[in-house]
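Try this one yourself first.
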């Protein structure tokens, strides 16, 4: 009789433990239980840098075995720079999809608000996630948000400018006032320029419409121009370059795609790698890893990217060592 009571007691303890842990197991495996996982991607605007991040997300998911038409269904929304579109699109994606990707800080902020700490939100290449109010810290993001980040290697970008333009004293820096990542990069670069004994001249645009006037003024006032990792600047890169060319001034941008859009040269991280990193991280979240304790992953490896056409047009001399590295490990755009 005593053995029977002990046996029944053991069964009750086992059942109690199973019931207590079942909700956590269900929550942890929520996404992997779906035959087809619905993936929502929200992008602020179309320009090459953000488009590369988007393509990287798809590549990263594919690396991990998640393919469109097989086990994931991708819903992509592009706000085309319209803030009201961002809010509406973010809410639609949060209502319909199982995991969300944000490309650019405003897109991330909109998705975080719409997801309301429930649906996982993966940041893709957000340069200043803490400053943008997206995570509590990079090591412990908290809530439902994590992802990839790629702050520009500013010290190496300034060194490139000094190596290529040793006579330049006044460095113009333009950024978008409403872009927290761009503003953060610009302010950090300003400090580096001052520390190097050079003179930074700061210019702001409220939106891409301002670039025409601001870039004309800047090009006439400075020796060389730095374009930080900033969505508004990247979107109006052709305008910036056109006015800089007319004044005979070189533009050194933060992103490789901005060099392709007319910048002279850069030491830049790969935008595609930023997206791919977020895709890899998302796969682990799909399999049950909690975003709250999943540290933000940084892409830090850079490469030299040279625009040969701009170099020739402005008669800029790229040091042979840098040109060799661009040919060997980076990119020379003909």
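Now uncover the answer:
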């Amino acid at each position: 009789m005593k053995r029977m009571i002990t046996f029944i007691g053991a069964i009750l303890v086992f059942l109690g433990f199973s019931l207590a842990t079942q909700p956590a197991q269900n929550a942890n495996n929520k996404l992997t239980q779906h035959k087809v996982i619905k993936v929502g991607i929200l992008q602020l605007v179309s320009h090459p840098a953000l488009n590369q991040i988007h393509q990287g997300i798809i590549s990263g998911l594919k690396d991990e075995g998640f393919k469109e038409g097989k086990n994931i269904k991708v819903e992509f929304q592009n706000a085309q720079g319209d803030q009201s579109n961002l809010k509406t699109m973010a809410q639609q994606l949060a209502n319909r999809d199982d995991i969300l990707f944000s490309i650019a800080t405003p897109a991330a902020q909109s998705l975080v608000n719409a997801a309301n700490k429930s649906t996982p939100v993966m940041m893709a290449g957000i340069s200043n996630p803490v400053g943008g109010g997206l995570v509590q810290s990079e090591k412990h993001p908290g809530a439902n948000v994590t992802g990839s980040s790629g702050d520009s290697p500013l010290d190496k970008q300034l060194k490139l400018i000094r190596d290529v333009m040793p006579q330049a004293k006044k460095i113009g820096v333009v950024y978008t006032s409403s872009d927290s990542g761009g503003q953060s990069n610009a302010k950090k670069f300003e400090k580096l320029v001052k520390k190097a004994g050079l003179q930074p001249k700061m210019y702001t645009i409220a939106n891409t419409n301002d670039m025409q006037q601001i870039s004309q003024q800047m090009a006439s006032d400075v020796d060389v121009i730095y374009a930080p990792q900033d969505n508004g600047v990247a979107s109006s890169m052709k305008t910036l370059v056109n006015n800089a060319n007319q004044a005979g001034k070189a533009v050194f941008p933060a992103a490789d795609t901005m060099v392709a859009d007319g910048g002279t040269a850069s030491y830049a991280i790969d935008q595609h790698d930023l997206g791919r990193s977020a895709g890899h991280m998302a796969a682990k979240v799909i399999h049950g890893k909690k975003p709250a304790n999943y540290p933000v992953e940084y892409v830090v490896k850079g490469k030299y990217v040279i625009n040969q056409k701009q170099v020739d047009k402005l008669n800029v001399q790229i040091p042979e060592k840098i040109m060799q590295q661009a040919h060997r490990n980076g990119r020379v755009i003909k």
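Discussion: The chain has a mean pLDDT of 90. DSSP finds 13 helices and 13 strands in the chain.
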